[in-house]
Structure formats: C-alpha cells, structure tokens
Design brief:
- By secondary structure, the chain is an all-alpha fold.
- The chain has a single domain, classed as lambda repressor-like DNA-binding domains (434 Repressor (Amino-terminal Domain), Orthogonal Bundle), CATH 1.10.260.40.
- It contains four helices and no strands.
- Helix 2 crosses helix 3.
C-alpha cells in the first residue's frame, strides 16, 4: 500500500516522537519507519494499522490516495 510519507512525518513531529520511539510503540522496525517517511517503500497493512494506532488516526489517513 502506498503511504503519504509527508503525512507520516508530520504526525510523528506533532507527537514529538523520534523514529525509534515510533518503532518501539508500534512494533514496526525503525528502518521501516524511515523508509515509509522517505517514500522508499510501500507499507504493509499491518504496519499502517500499527502506525495509525500510535498517531491516533484512522489507517486511511496514512494512505497516499493517488498522490505521487
């Protein structure tokens, strides 16, 4: 699934969290968090759901929805 990398970074910064903290809270590896925020990879549904829980948003809010 294609994620909105800018939105991911924005949400993390709003919560004042490091990538490492997000990884620990979500169970998603720090490398995956980095790759998602930099648009280097798409996300698995399980990763997107886990990140959405950490950020307190619906998983759909993390998807790119046609953005390039």
């Amino acid at each position: 699934m294609r994620v909105d990398s800018e939105r991911l970074k924005q949400l993390r910064e709003e919560k004042v969290l490091t990538m490492r903290q997000v990884a620990e809270l979500s169970g998603v590896s720090r490398d995956t968090v980095y790759r998602l925020e930099h648009g280097l990879t798409g996300g698995r549904q399980s990763s997107i759901k886990a990140l959405a829980r950490v950020y307190g948003v619906a998983p759909q809010e993390l998807l790119a929805n046609g953005k390039t």
